[in-house]
Amino acid sequence: MIKKIIVILAMIGLIMMLFPLVTNFEFLENLNDLSTNYVSGSVNELNSQNVVTSVIVTYRGLDTLGEVTVLFLATAAIGFLLKKKKTKKRGSSELLQTASSFLVALIILLGVYIFTHGHLTPGGGFQGGVIIATAFLLLILSDVNIKFNHTILQVVESFSGAFYVVIGLIGLVLTIGFLNAKIIPLGEYGNLFSAGAIPIIYSLIGLKVGSELTNILDTMRGE
Question: Is 187 strand, coil or helix?
């Protein structure tokens, strides 16, 4: 009975929170000043077709660095708190083994495509990194006894994170701003090699996210 009352009260509270949002919602015909600067700056200053990418990687790049740092801390905490236990050898699904032998390379390729084209199309480093991690998850599901080389994963994670910070510091040294994409030529608008350092930054984020999530998945597969 008490549980039902708590659920009802929670639902009422949620409705009270959302009701003003629904009743007072207004469609804006024009962008506000900040949004206008982001949209125009993405095209005119950075040669990037994806405004979201421009905001995440450049205009609010320091926030993105914080998000990557939080993911790193989560990975470290999971590795510290969870101890691997020896698992008994179990049989693997023949269907999953066949599928993984064909799909893993394609999934990784898709992830790489998404974070290297984040300045041109929807997607980016976080999305591409998650997709790459799903490829390794498929390997774990297809063969529970598979072993990953954690040294390589740690090297990729450390290099991508360190180089990400280096790119930001280069912008400060050149006095154009932290994580400013203009540290290299912007290129031609709409081309793969455009938007300055944005594709490089997003690729580093993709590699870091992919390696960190793979480490988490491998750590959590113990008993």
Answer: strand
Is the Cβ–Cβ distance between 67 and 55 less than 8 Å? no
pLDDT at 87: 54
Domain interval for residue 26 = 2-220
pLDDT in tens, 166-207: 998 888 888 678 888 888 888 888 888 888 889 999 999 999
Handedness of CA 102, 108, 111, 117 (dihedral sign): negative
Q: What angle do CA 42, 38, 43 make, to 5 degrees?
A: 20
Per-residue pLDDT tens for 89-125?
555 667 778 888 889 999 999 999 999 998 898 888 9
Contact 128, 114 (CB under 8 A): yes
CA distance linking residue 188 with residue 43, whole number of Å: 11
Beta bridge partners of 194: 187
Count of structural domains, the chain: 1
Spatial CA neighbour of 100 closest among 130, 131, 140, 132 = 140
Q: Count the residues in the chain.
A: 223
| 194 three-class SS | strand
